[in-house]
């Protein structure tokens, strides 16, 4: 054996009670599990794990590390949490498949998520090319953690239709179907949408259904950021269930939350809706993060009509006083579709990151506060930021409800997803703390569920959604993607005041049997590779 982890409390990912055992690893897999009383295995190295829990590696079902994995070999924000696999290509917008024109548009649109990518060599254009790039990142060694990819529907529409708000023609729809099929053939695990982001939000249900039929034919799943998390949120969830039902496609709801005052305490209604769909045979799961504020780009709050034509057209509209006045009315009076149908409250919109360093004084302040400091209207401040930062501003939205967060996380269809945006001077702490926050705050301190049940939400359930039969469980023959943590001390080190703090109580993380965290420190091991859809799984 290469390694024996001696005397750990094994939390195996099934939700069953933990048990004391020695776990032996060989060739990147779990070779033997010896419970108390069994013959103890030996190995070249023995790690004394008394006082620690041993769990499968955590799976981040909603990550925005599409460029971060290529930019930062350490990627400590995720590795230190015990994350061994991330799912990328989220919210319908990412960097493959693209042509040169589409790539330029995507880079501008999601600068607030990932930076503008000036430090990344965009040598790929296809999904397969991007996955190959992950496999050979950082001088050919690989990347920090494993990564799966969703074909981004908004990017696909951008490539086939453009930025126009209109139905796709038959030829354009056929091309989108081919692009989705090619992405799945090249290894994507499903398709994502961002239905409050242009241009993906211009797709109607018939178009989405046709694309989901392709996803279903390849055994993938559909992961929508649906049309509203505010006014009309429950109707938006129903819409996605109907699309999945009609297409016969598995459905995984992205960052499933109910936000804004009108949805306080309504999580049981959502769970009733999901349970009814599951009882009908619709394959539904979802992810969430254990925090109330959300995070997106400031530009995403604007009405969809303002973004038609792409980023350059949006900036031109912001530069025209009359059109900017219409945008303001949509935001502050009507409740723009980009703002989930709820009139914006500028006190709840906090700037978390800017692209232009000259705008740094806005970071960490609500737009209402910055406006008061400058003796101007909040819209004036917002418009200046949007224009000066070329749409690259990221914001926190303080519009969540804690009761909803707690109710949703206990459901058996729930999985963990950070929705972590690593770009910006003051990012959301979920990017650095989601998984230890689940274990420390919600399992240990609040007793929302047992550690064993909590681990199942973060390991075996997402692995099942991804159809990875050899991950998510501490079981002989499975990949040795493992986390050792102290159940008594594990906690997120990130806070809203200091969002980049690293967790405590997670001293060891292994991917394929190799230590990527050892004695609480990041090693130089790059064990991460692309995880491709398994044909016929």
TrEMBL record:
Q: Which Pfam families match?
A: Amidohydro_3 (PF07969)
Q: Where is the Amidohydrolase domain?
A: 45-516
Q: Which GO terms describe its molecular function?
A: hydrolase activity, acting on carbon-nitrogen (but not peptide) bonds, in cyclic amides
- What's one GO-annotated cellular component? cytosol
Q: Which InterPro entries match?
A: Amidohydro_3, Metal-dep_hydrolase_composite, Metal_Hydrolase, Metallo-dep_Hydrolases_sf
Name of the molecule in the record? N-acyl-D-amino-acid deacylase
């Amino acid at each position: 054996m290469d390694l024996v982890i001696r005397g750990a409390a094994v939390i195996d990912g099934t939700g069953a009670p933990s048990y004391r055992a020695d776990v032996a690893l060989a060739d990147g897999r779990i070779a033997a599990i010896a419970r108390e009383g069994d013959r103890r295995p030996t190995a070249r190295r023995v790690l004394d794990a008394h006082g620690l829990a041993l769990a499968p590696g955590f799976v981040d079902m909603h990550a925005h590390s599409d460029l971060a994995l290529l930019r930062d070999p350490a990627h400590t924000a995720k590795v230190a949490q015990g994350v061994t696999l991330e799912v990328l290509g989220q919210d319908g917008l990412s960097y493959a498949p693209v042509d040169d024109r589409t790539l330029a548009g995507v880079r501008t649109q999601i600068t607030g998520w990932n930076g503008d990518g000036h430090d990344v060599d965009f040598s790929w254009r296809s999904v397969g090319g991007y996955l190959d790039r992950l496999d050979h990142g950082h001088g050919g060694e690989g990347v920090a953690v494993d990564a799966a990819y969703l074909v981004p529907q908004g990017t696909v529409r951008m490539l086939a239709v453009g930025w126009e708000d209109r139905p796709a023609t038959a030829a354009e729809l056929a091309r989108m179907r081919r692009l989705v099929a090619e992405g799945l053939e090249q290894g994507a695990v499903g398709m994502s949408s961002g239905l409050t982001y242009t241009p993906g939000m211009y797709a109607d249900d018939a178009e989405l259904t046709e694309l989901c039929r392709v996803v279903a034919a390849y055994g993938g799943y559909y992961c929508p950021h649906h049309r509203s998390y505010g006014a009309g949120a429950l109707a938006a969830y129903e819409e996605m269930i109907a699309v999945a039902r009609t297409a016969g496609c598995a459905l995984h709801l992205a960052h499933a939350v109910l936000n804004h005052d009108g949805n306080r305490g309504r999580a049981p209604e959502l769970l009733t809706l999901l349970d009814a769909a599951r009882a009908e045979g619709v394959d539904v799961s979802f992810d969430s993060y254990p925090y109330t504020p959300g995070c997106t780009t400031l530009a995403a709050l604007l009405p969809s009509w303002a973004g038609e034509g792409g980023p350059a057209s949006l900036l031109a509209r912001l530069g025209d006083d009359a059109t900017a006045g219409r945008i303001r009315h949509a935001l502050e009076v009507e409740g723009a579709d980009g703002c989930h149908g709820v009139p914006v409250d500028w006190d709840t919109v906090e700037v978390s990151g800017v692209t232009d360093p000259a705008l740094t004084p806005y970071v960490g302040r609500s737009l209402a506060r910055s406006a008061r400091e400058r003796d101007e209207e909040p819209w004036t401040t917002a418009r200046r930021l949007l224009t000066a930062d070329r749409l690259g501003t990221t914001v926190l939205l303080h519009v969540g409800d804690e009761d909803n967060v707690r109710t949703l996380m206990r459901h058996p269809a729930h999985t963990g997803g950070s929705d972590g945006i690593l770009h910006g001077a003051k990012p959301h702490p979920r990017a650095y703390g989601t998984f230890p926050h689940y274990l420390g705050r919600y399992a240990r301190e609040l007793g929302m569920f047992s550690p064993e049940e909590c681990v199942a939400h973060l390991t075996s359930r997402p692995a099942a959604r991804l159809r990875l039969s050899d991950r998510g469980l501490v079981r002989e023959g499975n990949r040795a993607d493992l986390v050792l943590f102290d159940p008594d001390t594990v906690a997120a080190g990130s806070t809203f005041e200091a969002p980049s703090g690293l967790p405590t109580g997670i001293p060891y993380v292994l991917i394929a049997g190799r230590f990527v965290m050892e004695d609480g420190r990041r090693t130089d091991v790059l064990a991460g590779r692309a995880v491709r859809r398994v044909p016929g799984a």
